[in-house]
Amino acid sequence: MAVETLGSTPRTKVAPWNDPVIRGWVFQIVVVGLVGFLAWYLVSNTIDNLQRQKIASGFHYLEREAGFEIGDTMIEYSPASTYARAIWVGILNTLRVAVLGILLSTLLGTLIGVGRLSPNWLLNRICGWYVEAFRNVPLLLWLFLFYKLISEAFPGPRQAISLFWNSVFLSNRGVYFPVPMADPIHKWMGVAFLIGIAGAWFVNRWGKKRQEATGQPFPALSAGLAIVIGLPALVWLAGGAPHHMSWPELKGFNFAGGTVIQPEFTALLVGLVLYTSAFVAEIVRSGILALHKGQSEAAAALGLSRGQSMRLVLLPQALRVIVPPMTSQYLNITKNSSLAIAIGYPDLVASINVTINQTGQAIENILIIMAAYLSVSLSISAFMNWYNKRIALRER
Amino acid sequence: MTDAMPVGDRKPLAPPVDETGALGWVRKNLFSSWGNGITTIVLIAAVAWVLSWFLEWALFTANFTASTGAECRGGGACWALIREKFRYIFFGSFPYEQHWRPLFAVITMLAMLVLSADRRMWNWRLLVIWGIGSFITFLLMFGQIHIPLSLILFVALACGGAGLALRSALATPSERLAYYALVGIGAVGLVLRIVGVLPKWSIAIAPLSYVETSLWGGLPVTLILATYGLAFAFPYGVLLALGRRSNLPLIKGLCVGFIELIRGVPLISLLIMASVMLPLFLPSGTTIDKFLRAQVAVILFAGAYIAEVIRGGLQSLPKGQFEAADAMGLNYPQKTLLIILPQALRVVIPPLINTFIGFFKDTSLVLIIGIFDFLNTANQALVDPNWAGFPGEVYLFAAFVYFIFCYSMSRYSKYLEFELNKGTRR
Amino acid sequence: MAATARDLSKAESVIQLKGVNKWYGQFHVLSDINLDVKEGEKIVICGPSGSGKSTLIRCINRLEEHQRGDIVVHGVTLSNDVKNIEAIRREVGMVFQSFNLFPHLTILDNLTLAPIWVKKMPKKEAEEIAMSLLTRVRIPEQALKYPGQLSGGQQQRVAIARALCMRPKIMLFDEPTSALDPEMVKEVLDVMIELAREGMTMLCVTHEMGFARAVADRVIFMDRGEIVEQNEPEAFFANPRNERTKLFLGQILHNH
Predict the structure, then answer these.
(1) What is the pLDDT of residues B76-90, one digit of tens each?
(2) How far apart are CA C4 and CA C214, in angstroms?
């Protein structure tokens, strides 16, 4: 029997309007054409309007003097600084609140999520009410509430509440607390900290190798912590243990010395953390619940302790379910920090808003906002894709 | 070894007393171990302390009847402020005597939403519900509606087009003729209208006095923004989701780019964009109602998120569904509308409701561009110098209202999920 | 080949259950269970669903808690004392109906996990033991694959090897073949029969009566939380004494 060779059947002639490939391309070209037409329409209107209203174009305004004050800055800034610097201050403020928010809400959220699974009925329910209360009310409302409470419930600097033997002061201008005075040893402590991290990593690798060879387990966590904390501590001691602090003192109408956390920042951070940890708690809880009961049973039947089964069997599997929604919550914190503008914290959106009002150049400034937030969100997306590929369970 | 035990005549044993009943429950849930017991005691103490302080402030020493702020000071919560201002908080600057109008608008919208989530309504009934409901809502809020000719023509075009796409094989010749007629009238009419041959004409319905959007405020504003945000974002979200999954590279690229762009930036920046950039995009001289600008921003924002939720639903469908539809000879619109979407959408109702709850909360951000949603009116109630200094009461009240809405919606979503799974549980 | 009545009277008792009772709320799931398992004995437990047979063997390694009565394994009394529980779990291995392999670890890692972390064995030694056991269950070539890549029968054989890596003295089987496609049941039962012939003490909850006939020293029938009847397999199947046993056997053997 002759074997039919594939590909020898001639392709039947198809009328171009019935050919799916051609139809596909025609459809795409039409759609892109429509979108392009719309874009052209919008752009030409914009150019027309900009010219009519005599609004400048381009990013030259970034070098001009900003002329407005910013209340809470991490770096040097004055009204004489450029717009570029004002925007940079905004970015740093956004990062400050976002990074702290991510750390604290992960911590608090995990605790509450685990509490939701506790066999203690009271703890279980209280954590549940916490989650429901914070998830069903807008973040902006919480921010207003906290901000008003802090600024109206706390007294003025002269009647500030003092804690810890006159070292910490609570007033409606912020929370003042002492900081160590700058000393050259701090730079060395920073170096020691970095060396400590590297050292901890090496020590843990050595410990793992030793366990593989001899079976003796190695206390990775305690050793790592000891090195990362101990090394800078040793450096500090070697440098003569400098402990001069800058103490906040009431001078006239306000405090001088020490450092301050302003009410806007406090309200924003507290609101963000409490709100987001409700969502993080649910993510952690569903991650742990997604684990098949049999996994913990099999681990227990093999003789693994609760800690070991948590670490070696349960947590790796739970993390798979937890990490993707967790990263989108991190993204949410970063985006939600833009609500700062409603309570007066000078984040990126606030700086840009003032800049738009003063220069009239809406488009360039909006582009800056979008570029800033998009770079954060795209890098988080990229990380998540990489993570998902790496940990995907291999199936048939 | 044999062992046949005399069974059946053993008296049934009751479980040990401290294992069941109230005592057993307490022992198992609160005091099952030392750590547990200590936690319970600490928590009871903490809850008792907080609760006693709160009840003292909110109930026992609260003032319900004061008529000025000064009277209300000193003592517990000033709920008299809420009594005084609740009409403003709920309905904004809407004319006082006509408050029944926004009230019924709110009820209508809630009815529309509740009915839309019921799968039995998921056919032509949905369009009827939304059509009538929206008509009533906007008639109540505006007081007067003008339906322009172009809208009527557009609807004719859409109905005809949809009928042709879906029922081309099933329709009787006369039905098909009707669709062609609709498309013809719609297309020709619109062209004539754009060119200017047909005059600007509209049907006017004006039973009540006109109230412009700048006077709207409070709960109706929040509900309109969220409801119509969802309503318009839904079809365009579906299109985005389908486009993202398409094999045509340009379409897919456009959709992916758009979705990632919108999802990557905060809603505030979109609102600012809408209020600041929209005037630049349109020919000079055209003004867009501020409320409409906010609504458009919410729709754009919502669509990208809805698209992702629906994409999840589409991905969960087994490939066999698509293949079976193709094997039956259905074209793309038929396959999508009759087979794929009904199944995908049924699966995503609970996450869609969650997304809606999110929008409902997010509408509070329109405060930034000066729209008076529910949170903003609550905020404004604090500005009155006569009643200054009671932020806790106002915000707690507002939080309570939001909580009632959002919590009910999430319970409804859980109930729907339960009902949905009835079909799949064995 | 039927198991001949072995002389187990000289063997020592490794598991003793005395008056064991368990309730789920008001539901009496284990009712006055008395059982004595000798070293090297193979017991098959059968019965309708809900009879408490799985609960019974899960109580032995404390995956479930009993409320009244005593359970003693190798002289260690089972209580809330964590040390006792750990000691017992080191001696008792368990194979589950749903395999419960750890999906994020390779087959080899699944097997060596407990020896490394519980018995503190060096990795090389653990891997040697693991490979020899994988050879014994006849799938050494799958060592570096992941559980998701294996068939059901292969996964269950790995699960048996994993339990054996800890060198248990007693093996518990909770319906090991119930979740398998019919063509894979034999390969798992073959492994279990080999294990039995090597002298392992086994408690097996199963519906596979062929297995019972081949290796069991005793067949126990449980119903509604009670041990209704127990006997040698020949006598049990040929001559059930209790009405309930007859009813159950009628249903089971009819479908076999």
Answers:
(1) 788 888 888 888 889
(2) 10
